[in-house]
Amino acid sequence: MTDAILITGGAGYIGSHTARRLLEDNRRVVVLDDLSTGHREVLTFFERIYGPEQFGFENVSLLNPDELAGVFDRHTFSGIIDFAAKSLVGESQEKPRFYFENNVLAFRNLVAASGDIPIVKSSTAATYGEPDSGYIPLGEGYQEHILGAGEFDQCQLMPAAVSFDELLGWYKQDIAEQSPALALGEIDIAHLKIPTNVYGITKVMDERLLVRSGRRFAALRYFNAAGADRSRLIGEDHDPETHLIPIVLQVALGQRPHITVFGDDYDTLDGTAVRDYVSVPELADAHVLCLDKLVSGAESMTYNLGSSKGFSVREIIKAVREVTGHAIPEILGERRSGDPATLIANADQIKKDLGWQVQESLLETIESAWHWHRLHPQGYLVVQEERFNPFWNRWVNVAAHRGNRPWRGETQSMDKGGDIAYEPECYLCPGNTRVTGDVNPNYEGVWSFTNDFSSLVLDAYETEQRNGPYASRTSRGVCEVVVYGPNHSQRLSTLSVNEIANVVDAWADIYARLGEKAEIAYPLIFENRGDVMGNSQPHPHGQVYAYGEIPDLIVKPQLAMFAQYKKEKGGCFVCDANDVEVDDGRRILVNEKDVVAYVPFAAQFPYDVMIMPKRHVASLLELGAEERLGLADALQCVLTGLDGLFDAPYHYTLALLQAPTDGVDYGYHMQIQITSLLRGPGLRKHVVGADIFGNLINPSDPNVTAEELRHAMAEID
Ligand code: UFG
Q1: In this structure, how many other beta carbons lie within 10 angstroms of the beta carbon of residue 607?
Q2: Is residue 243 within 6 Å of ligand 1 at its C-beta?
Q3: Which candidate in 199, 222, 511, 650 is catalytic?
Q4: φ, ψ (nearest 5 deg) of residue 50
């Protein structure tokens, strides 16, 4: 097993994005976090998506050296990225000891426990204090430069619950006395005089401690981190929120009445403070670049991570108005203590050395933050809510935490599938004799025949009775079996896209042929695959139930709902659901020219997938060859992804829901639905109790199952 990267504070904002970046690169990550401000939900998400091989979590505080030593005993690390820190300037002024302990003592413990493993250390622009405008944009050499010019005899610490000398005393007593090598010299103390707040001083202490330790490190001074991962699944969630962009977005969401502009009398173009905003995925990239450089033997480095561009508070508010389309009421407030007028990075050094530079525009960054906030208005949470599923006309109890409950019941074996192309005992293989005595033809492509045990027949006896509340009617229809091909060892997911397209064509022909019959009102085409779904015949095949009456379970309620929805909203609910899903994006699996596939918002079972033609079409008959090929491609992507996710041939039931063929135009929009009783590899969702008599319970978060599936699909590509 390859060595892992340790990410301390990996449940926090920048830490989680960096962990995600490494995990997406197939690297092993261990997050250490005491969860004092980080989010357990993001770690659960990583656990589900990447699994224990790739991701581990240590719920440990850096303030506990014994527990910390245990982490280093349990894992071997090739590098460390340290985000674990407190970072609120105002709070640091009020609780300096808390900041000293969490930001300096904790870091000293990490340095002591980790031998000579290279460390990437999160630092801050607060280390630059309140620079004169002449020094903007700020280079990494700013401190050395001004100290050389003798500009900092006095410390710049603004009024706080501690004096500068007391802070130095803590360092001396708690760190230097135990490890004399880490004692601060004159030059270190001069650096400590520059920041205006305790937070900034603790970060300078960390930087100086690293220098004294003789260890190879990268100190990365962030300017203003903003935005969110493109997946829209992880993002910024602070409590309390103090940062400008999330606060303005909360105003856009109506969660706050207005934004208070902290001072408009700064020496800037519009009088409001200017900052340099960097997207958090790009910050994550910079960490990984620096780490890899260190791991490959580079010397220590200190870099600014900024865009070299500044935006004022008012410019940010204007940009948020542009992105969100919402009016953002603003009021003017007092300056916030400790806020410098302008902080803009000169980020030339890291560009020159490592080729890293900010690519994303401010509007793109705000847009990604907006998606996160709009889609997660309460931040991280474990979904536990009722969701309406319009496709099934029912409420679903989505209770994601139930997926983690201990399970002592039965588990399902997931057969790996066979490789025998011809099975003499199979009643579907070419040339074999079925139980009726009929001999199968030597078919080469798709072949269908009337089911030997049809539930519905055309020559059924006539009946039409009422008996109190009971009634009976004639059971009329046709049942067929559709064999996808002669090779016994294949399944829909292992056929080529062209072969699947042939199956799609055959489905269309069957629908047309049976739909034409005066007795048939609804040809339902479906497939059951795997024992869990009641099918132990592995030969690739599906079925057709062509009904004399429109069946009750899904199509009939859908027709009523289509009509009602059209009356109320004037459109088609499938088209609208597709639009909602594409706009949301978190559950989209395939989004191609003609086809979209997703795990629906109100999935009833964990791995429900809908595959839809984008065009409003009633059936396959309205789709051209290219659109059918698109559908076949989507089917293959989704089904191979599901096989990959379950590491075995997936067990599912699939249905083509097309318009009735009774001659009425219902304005129907066809769908392919795939569902399964599996809730995880080997784990079956039992449909009992509340699921039968109350509302169905989905024990998973559809956003997460979609991401699991997307991940599996990407592995196959
Ligand atoms: N602001 C407002 N109204 C608000 C919130 C913020 O006007 O409701 C202003 C602030 O006064 C500041 C600017 O928006 O001028 C940006 O404020 P943030 O709180 O978003 O960010 P800061 O620049 O204050 O803080 C960032 C990091 C800190 C770091 C600091 C260095 O988040 O960790 O830069 O100055 F210490």
Answers
A1: 27
A2: yes
A3: 199
A4: -105, -15
Cβ proximity of 251 and 372 under 8 Å: no
Q: How far is the CA of 264 from the centre of ligand 1 (A)?
A: 14
Residue 240: cis peptide before it, omega within 30 degrees of 0: yes
Q: What is the pLDDT of residues 511-534, one digit of tens each?
A: 999 999 999 999 999 999 988 888
- Write out the two tokens for 52: 């224990």
Q: Which atom of ligand 1 is nearest to the CA of 125?
A: 31
By most ligand atoms within 8 Å of CB, the mutation choice from 339, 343, 362 for ligand 1 is 339
Q: Do the beta carbons of residue 522 and residue 555 sit within 8 Å?
A: yes
CB distance 607 to 599 below 8 Å: yes
Instruction: Please state the pTM of the whole predicted model.
Output: 0.94
Q: Hey, what are 19's tokens?
A: 């962990």
Burial of 313 (0-12, 13-18, 19+ CB in 10 A): buried
Q: What are the residue boundaries of the structural domains of the chain, listed by start? A: 225-276+307-346+353-381, 392-401+514-716
418 C-alpha to ligand 1 centroid (Å): 61
Instruction: Measure 159 CA to ligand 1 centroid, in angstroms.
Output: 18
Q: Which of 329, 332, 220, 323 is nearest to 278 (CA)?
A: 220
Q: Is 262 in the pocket of ligand 1 (CB under 6 A)?
A: yes
Q: Whose CA is nearest to atom 18 of ligand 1?
A: 243
Specify the ligand 1 atom closest to the Cα of 224.
26
* pLDDT tens, position by position, 246-285: 999 999 999 999 999 999 999 999 999 999 999 999 999 9
Task: Measure 150 CA to ligand 1 centroid, in angstroms.
Answer: 29
The tokens for 421 are: 């192309």
Cβ atoms of residues 57 and 31 within 8 Å:
yes
* Averaged pLDDT, 336-352: 92
Residues 6+ apart with CB under 8 A from 516: 661
Rounded CA separation 63/631 (Å): 55
| Structure tokens that stand for 680 in this block | 């995880």
The protein residue with its alpha carbon nearest to ligand 1, atom 27, reads: 224
- Which residue's CA is the nearest one to ligand 1's atom 30? 126
Peptide bond into 137 cis (omega under 30): yes
What are 359's two structure tokens? 């690519």
Q: Are strands 77-82 and 119-124 parallel, antiparallel or unpaired?
A: parallel
Q: Is 547 a catalytic residue?
A: no
- The per-residue pLDDT for range 265-275, each reduced to its tens digit, is 999 999 999 99
* DSSP codes joined into one string, 362-374: HHHHHHHHHHHHH
% of the chain beyond a pLDDT of 70 = 98
Tokens found for residue 541? 């095949």
The CATH code for residues 225-276+307-346+353-381 is 3.90.25.10
Alpha-carbon Rg for the chain, nearest whole angstrom, is 31
The CB of 336 under 6 Å from ligand 1? The reply is: yes
Q: What angle do CA 370, 372, 375 make, to 5 degrees?
A: 100
What is the C-alpha separation between 542 and 483, in angstroms, rounded? 6
Element at 696 (helix H, strand E): strand 696-698
Q: Is 242 in the pocket of ligand 1 (CB under 6 A)?
A: yes
Q: Which CATH architecture has domain 392-401+514-716?
A: 2-Layer Sandwich (3.30)
Surface-to-core class of residue 179, CB atoms within 10 Å of its CB (0-12 exposed, 13-18 middle, 19+ buried): middle
Residue in 178, 175, 130, 119 with CA at minimum distance from that of residue 157: 130
Task: Burial-class residue 224 by CB neighbours within 10 Å (0-12, 13-18, 19+).
Answer: buried
DSSP 513-571: HHHTSTT-SEEEEEEEESGGGT----SSEEEEEEESS--TTTHHHHHHHHHHHHHHHSS
Q: What is the pLDDT of residues 468-507, one digit of tens each?
A: 999 999 999 999 999 999 999 999 999 999 999 999 999 9
Which residue has its alpha carbon closest to ligand 1 atom 12?
273
Scanning the structure block, which residue is given the tokens 């009509």?
563
